[in-house]
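Handout, page 2. Input:
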Amino acid sequence: MWKSKIEQVFSTDPEFCSYCGSILPVPSGTATDHQCFVCQESINTKHVTNVSYIVHFNDADVYSKERGESSGGRKKKSKGKGKYKEDVVAEGPVVDRECRRCGHGQMSYATLQLRSADEGQTVFYTCMNQACKFKESENS
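Output:
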């Protein structure tokens, strides 16, 4: 265990030890002095007693409405035609790449490491045209 005459070695967020950088225990009760688990340095936590964390969870109903789904998880009927909307849902990031089958200008892609570590990854492309959905792969 080392002690230093310096107040702190480096500046950090209040949740981290200013001597070694490790995560501090959550202050509980009325005590203002805590001890770092790693360097055993005494840390004054008076400045973090008013810190609070808020976690926001997405509301499932709001998410469904944004995606155009009814409460049962199915697509809402489009007006006038009586069929479900045929929205194309990307299976990953979308790039400007022409589909070899239908000529559509956008494809989504996903990458996987299928070969040995010293070789490149395999990129799987999927056509964004709902009627086509052609899939192709490329070894990079």
